[in-house]
């Protein structure tokens, strides 16, 4: 059988060694999972009844989080879209331009939002503004790379047809490639929008505002019934964004 070839046996042994090494490095112990009952006991005894009296205030902070994620992702898309043409092999003017823009996008993508957030909170003070800037910079790197790969895989036929009737290089590239990749760009945007909501929660822990900051404060003060309300609102926020994104993608695609 093909699975008993030496090569596949060697791969399986390598994976097993990597698993053992990872579990040793992270002190991963299966027996600790027997303590999961403590978590269930904590949730059932301390998280209920949910503190619904805080709903108006927490609904406002949920909307702040939604605004942070939308603004950060949308502005990132506006910047990443033109940059992605310069970061794609088939549309970038020169190899130097391609390498420079691609390297810059990789540099932005390699820095987590929380690092950007810590820098901007120090520079601009606490609040959602610093969090929005952090989301913008990281998402420029991510969206720029993803869109540039879509551009590289686009069909060259429409572009050559437009050039043959007198269109300039850039006009042919823009008006022949964007219609091809637009549904996938939209799909990537909504995915990053969902990720930005979760990122906004983490940025709230360092003073970025929104429901993430409230969640951190409630945990710090052992106000678990309020934490339960925070978690419910976060789940609703993510589900609503996922539903709306799916409907828009279905309409466009």
UniProtKB/TrEMBL annotation:
Entry-linked Pfam families: BPD_transp_1 (PF00528)
Keyword entries, A-Z: Cell membrane, Membrane, Transmembrane, Transmembrane helix, Transport
Transport recorded as keyword: yes
Single GO cellular component term: plasma membrane
Subcellular location: Cell membrane
Signal peptide from the UniProt entry: none
Domain (ABC transmembrane type-1): residue spans on this chain: 62-245
Membrane topology recorded in Swiss-Prot or TrEMBL: Multi-pass membrane protein
Residue ranges of the TM segments: 6-23, 63-88, 114-137, 222-244
Molecular function in Gene Ontology: ABC-type phosphonate transporter activity
Domain of life according to the entry: Bacteria
PANTHER family for the chain: ABC TRANSPORT SYSTEM PERMEASE PROTEIN P69, PHOSPHONATES TRANSPORT SYSTEM PERMEASE PROTEIN
Family recorded in the similarity comment: Belongs to the binding-protein-dependent transport system permease family.
Official protein name in the record: Phosphate-import permease protein PhnE
Name of encoding gene: phnE
